[in-house]
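Open question from group meeting: does this chain pack into something compact, or does most of it stay loose? Before anyone orders reagents, we agreed to write out a predicted structure and look at it together. Recording both the input and the output here so the notebook holds the full record.
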Amino acid sequence: MSTTSQRQIMDRELPKAVPPQLQTDNMSFLDHLEELRWRIIKGLGGVLLGIIVAFIYSDFFIDTVLLGPVYKDFFVYQWIGLDAVDISLQNRRLPGQFFTYWGTLFVVGFIIGSPLFIYQLWKFIEPALESKEKRRTRFTAFSITGLFLAGVTFGYTVLVPFAVQFFAQFQLSDSVRNDIDITAYFSAVTMWIVACGIIFQLPMVSYTLSKVGILTPEFMIKYRKLAIVMCFVLAAFITPPDPVSQFLIGIPLFLLYQLGIYISRYVNKKRDKEIWGASGKP
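Structure tokens returned:
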């Protein structure tokens, strides 16, 4: 091929690359709202499915799982060697057992169906993401679900047994008998369990705030002493007023805060590299 022909080929305008079309490019604002509505409906359908599962196995969830801590042979008491006592529950209102039954199944169904609900929310934002971002959000969705279930497990196996036995055995006087109402018992147990699931989201809160540039590891380290105090104050609110239970909640809370520092440091370093280049500094 002659030199002139080569120059003519090189001088030609190369075809422009066509950017990949997102699945959401042709969707209007109302289409997005409609998609979000259906994702929420499907997520609530997952929660409803969890409630159905809880209803089908209601004897197991109520008699074995939630009422397990009222028996002194509960497996956690056996593991830790806690001097537990059997607890008698009473119903003091005519519709008390009915509303307690359904309220408890709704909470259990929410816990069972929460992974499906989070998955539907992730599927709503997935089409607008690139493949790299999809991997990140997939990791986030699984992390939120995993941390919530880990918190629920922690609340059921650690907080609930100590709290139940403390309140059941605490007496102002030997002449005052503890007659525990079933509504108060189930409300307290489900509240403690769900609260632990929410508290265990602290690392994801740190990740999200660091991702948008609001939180830095330096800030978390600066106020770490205050955070320790706040962890034990929060533990005092959701646990019985005894030192053992407060330490059982306060220490994991502080460890979650410490984990949040490492997560914030990692996210901020990665964010700085994306903004300023390989040096990671302005």
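Observations to bring back to the group:
The CA atoms of residues 216 and 264 lie 6 Å apart.
Residues 17-24 have pLDDT under 50 and may be disordered.
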